[in-house]
Amino acid sequence: MTPMDMLLSRASTDRLKPPAPSEAQMAEILATAMRAPDHGKLRPWRYVIVKDAARLLLAERIVASMVRMDPDVPEFKKQKRLNRFSTIPMTLVLGMHLRPEHKIPLWEQEMTVAAGAMNILNALHALGFGAVWVSGDVVNDPVLAEELGFPAPHKLAGFLFIGTPEAPLPSPKRPDPAQFTAIWQGQPVNFPADGKTP
Ligand SMILES: Cc1cc2nc3c(=O)[nH]c(=O)nc-3n(C[C@H](O)[C@H](O)[C@H](O)COP(=O)(O)O)c2cc1C
């Protein structure tokens, strides 16, 4: 696979079976996150690996968080999330170590975390693993964030479910990039994606 083939064939999947990456593979995968653009070198990315027996502990904390966020959350949703988090081969918690007082704005710090996560998704794919980035209301729960090591002002950016794809990756039709691209020639641009011709 050429590097371009690799980038153009990545797709998310939540149909994941063991194995998850080994420790050595995870070290290599996480090294790609250190290549994310990072204004001010603040290194706001944080990664928490959850595997083996700790998966059930995380699943239980997730369910408790769901109830905190919505006391009326239906039982079946709790069960679904419990099963998911306790059986996925590996979860990588994406944390954001944020510095609101810093002159680099928070949004730039958060984007750096996202850029790192994208590198991780691509690296997983390059090594033949599958993954999906998920969030949900629970990522806004400060109690859960603290339980995972991110007391305010630090936050969660979501979870990467990681494993080996159970089936060939889905290949949903992707948008035409021309829809989202314009060439600036001195006037404000329009995009076909917004129903306007450039
Ligand atoms: C910050 C963030 C949070 C996301 N949260 C969820 C989620 O909770 N549930 C979900 O099904 N997809 C979620 N997604 C979307 C999936 O990760 C994925 O991008 C989507 O299924 C499309 O697949 P693709 O990556 O192959 O285009 C999230 C994506 C991002 C960037």
Automatic annotation (TrEMBL):
Describe the location of the Nitroreductase domain by residue ranges: 9-163
Cited InterPro entries: NAD(P)H_nitroreductase (IPR052530), Nitroreductase (IPR029479), Nitroreductase-like (IPR000415), YdjA-like (IPR026021)
Respond yes or no to whether keyword Flavoprotein is given for this record: yes
Q: Name one GO molecular function term.
A: oxidoreductase activity
Enumerate the residues binding FMN.
R10, A11, S12, R35, H39, W133, V134, S135
Which cofactors? FMN
Cofactor descriptive note = Binds 1 FMN per subunit.
Renumbered residue ranges of the record's region Disordered = 1-21
- Enzyme Commission code(s) on record: 1.-.-.-
Keywords attached to this entry: Flavoprotein, FMN, NAD, NADP, Oxidoreductase
Could you say which enzyme class this protein belongs to?
Answer: oxidoreductase
The family annotation for this protein states:
Belongs to the nitroreductase family.
What is the protein name given in its UniProt record? Putative NAD(P)H nitroreductase
Q: Which organism is it from?
A: Acetobacter pomorum
